[in-house]
Design a protein that fits this description.
About 40% of the residues are buried. Helix 2 links the parallel strand 2 and strand 3. The C terminus is likely disordered. The radius of gyration is 22 Å and the shape is elongated. About 25% of the residues lie in helices and about 25% in strands. Helix 1 packs parallel to helix 6. It has two domains: about 190 residues, 3-Layer(aba) Sandwich (Rossmann fold); about 80 residues, Methionyl-tRNA Fmet Formyltransferase, Chain A, domain 2, CATH 3.10.25. It is α/β, with parallel strands linked by helices and about 300 residues long. A seven-stranded mixed sheet has the order 3-2-1-4-5-7-8. Strands 10-11-14-13-12 form a five-stranded antiparallel sheet. The protein has a two-stranded parallel sheet with strand order 6-9.
């Protein structure tokens, strides 16, 4: 297919762009947010063979008009966090498709990979959809699932999804070109929206969360995200890695115990070991046994 416009802002879009170009497809434009002008992402997109344009508002009528003059065949959204309006969606001759890192319709909305870890899913789903003016409501063109291993972090899931998306898109392009594309409407009875997570949502609630829930939260928001957090003695304890422990550490939820593997913290049920954490940014700081961690801060976090 010729004259594709891709909207990207990170590795998902770059992996898809590079793979599709390698298969002989051509891009009319690679659109990046204005704040990524001149960035490594923009440079890599250009190196892959797509003219790059940094745009402040892709729904601006002036931009849509200029895009229309290029007569693009297809729009492809890959991690671009903007709601597209009808004039932009309908500009390409074959419409606009989106790479959504969630099983649909069960994981509509923001942060779908994070939520799939937090919710204890054993497999993660990703989808390619034809978009409409709703949020993740368009028909599904392709989908895939992969296991969420017990030790997978959010970075691991992004890596797995980014390896699968290019192949899904290539399958969609082949079906479009061959006139065999199947569009599967979503079942609204199974639809559920999840909100975009923010750093403040990484707060650990020791009184309500089990050890498994704390473990899943930490691996869902660890690097490259800001991590989970709690508080001790007016300082913020930022947690990037934990382990589940079968040792019966007793005490009030949030109480720190001594352990050879690191600080052990009691949860509402069970306990976790801190394996990677810092205190007010100091990765070498220690949590003394017997201290009480309390997530009920006076603020909503960073």
């Amino acid at each position: 297919m010729q004259d594709i416009v891709i909207y990207l802002n990170g590795e998902r879009g770059l992996a898809t762009l590079e793979r599709i170009v390698a298969e002989g497809h051509a891009f009319a434009r690679a659109i990046v947010p204005a704040n990524l002008e001149g960035s490594d992402i923009a440079e890599r997109a250009a190196a892959a063979g797509a003219p790059v344009e940094a745009v402040a508002d892709v729904n601006d009528p002036e931009f849509v008009g200029a895009l229309s003059a290029l007569k693009p065949q297809l729009g492809l959204i890959a991690g671009y966090s903007t709601i597209f309006k009808a004039p932009l969606i309908e500009t390409p001759a074959r419409g606009t498709i989106n790479l959504h890192a969630g099983r649909l319709p069960q994981y509509r909305g923001g942060s779908p990979l994070n939520w799939q870890i937090i919710n204890g899913e054993k497999t993660a789903g990703i989808s390619v959809t034809r978009i409409d003016e709703g949020i993740d409501t368009g028909p599904v063109l392709a989908r895939a699932e992969f296991p969420i291993e017990a030790t997978d972090t959010i970075a691991d899931l992004h890596g797995k999804a980014n390896r699968l998306f290019p192949e899904l898109v290539l399958g969609v392009l082949r079906s479009m070109d061959g006139g065999t594309l199947t569009e599967t409407p979503q079942d609204e009875a199974e639809a559920h929206y999840w909100r975009q997570r923010k750093p403040a949502d990484g707060r650990i609630d020791w009184r309500r969360m089990t050890a498994r829930q704390v473990y899943d939260l930490v691996r869902a928001v660890t690097r490259p995200y800001p991590g989970a957090f709690t508080e001790w003695d007016g300082k913020q304890v930022r947690v990037f890695g934990t382990e589940l422990t079968e040792n019966g550490f007793a005490g009030q939820p949030g109480r720190v115990s001594r352990s050879d593997g690191g600080p052990a913290v009691a949860c509402s049920e069970g306990a976790v070991l801190f394996t990677d954490f810092d205190i007010d940014g100091d990765a070498g700081a220690e949590l003394p046994p017997g201290v009480q961690l309390d997530a009920r801060l006076g603020e909503d976090g960073p």
